[in-house]
Design goal:
Structural class: alpha+beta
Shape: globular
Number of strands: 5
Radius of gyration: 18 Å
Low-confidence stretches: 1-17, 28-40
Strand order of the largest sheet: 1-2-3-4-5
Largest sheet: 5 strands, antiparallel
Distance between the termini: 26 Å
Helix content: 55-70%
Strand content: 15-25%
Mean pLDDT: 79
Order of helices and strands: HHHHHHEEEEEHH
Length: 219
């Protein structure tokens, strides 16, 4: 059973990697090739653009490209993305029904572990990507929810990528991303559910803890 859990977590990390990489690549390089979208540009789109502009500023700052400032640069990028991505909402939706059984302390721990999982997946890739850009397609809004549809352009490939956002206060926060028709949150929910079925919620958390420790203390 332990082996099965380890394999499940490995698959979770690597099968979801492509989606996560594309998410942050889109954030980092959306402005490389800008297609006019004035007829679609509402508050959700403008919110995304504000984040993208700041990511671009950090990536293009020459002083931050020095090897000795690599960790500082990465932390700056993570803070910018964290301000737009609602990790608690993503964690809640990715875990599903078990979320409602957790204490506040357990919820906070899960959010922290899930955030570490997500950020580590894209951290190395975002700084080395050199794609052509992203095209905005349209925006849909229904009260406190919105979806900003885009298309990632990379070589001859065109990858549909949709951001799902929720309005919290006066801000729009990303709670899911759909890459080529596949929901990031749903993908994780399926992986988490399998691990819980073969072990338990505690088993899932233990595996995420071990992975988090490996990330913080690489060999």
């Amino acid at each position: 059973m332990v082996t099965m859990i380890k394999v499940s977590v490995y698959c979770l990390l690597h099968r979801s990697g492509r989606s996560l990489v594309v998410i942050l690549l889109c954030l980092a390089f959306l402005a490389v090739w800008w297609v006019p979208v004035s007829c679609y540009a509402g508050a959700p789109t403008e919110a995304m653009k504000a984040t993208i502009d700041e990511v671009l500023r950090i990536l293009q700052e020459e002083e931050l490209k020095q090897p000795g400032r690599a960790e500082e640069r990465r932390q700056m990028l993570e803070r910018v993305v964290e301000a737009r991505f609602d990790y608690q909402e993503m964690s809640k939706r990715a875990l599903g029904a078990p979320w409602n059984t957790l204490s506040d302390e357990q919820k906070q721990e899960f959010v922290t572990l899930f955030r570490t999982l997500l950020t580590n997946t894209y951290a190395d890739k975002i700084e080395t990507y050199s794609g052509e850009g992203v095209q905005y397609l349209n925006e849909r809004q229904d009260k406190a929810y919105a979806e900003v549809r885009t298309k990632v352009l990379s070589g001859k490939a065109e990858i549909p990528l949709d951001y799902r956002l929720i309005q919290k206060g006066n801000d729009w926060r990303v709670y899911d991303v759909v890459v080529d028709g596949v929901s990031l949150v749903n993908n994780y929910r399926g992986q988490f559910a399998k691990i819980i079925r073969t072990s338990s919620y505690d088993g899932l958390v233990e595996q995420l803890r071990k992975k988090s420790e490996q990330i913080k203390s690489p060999q």
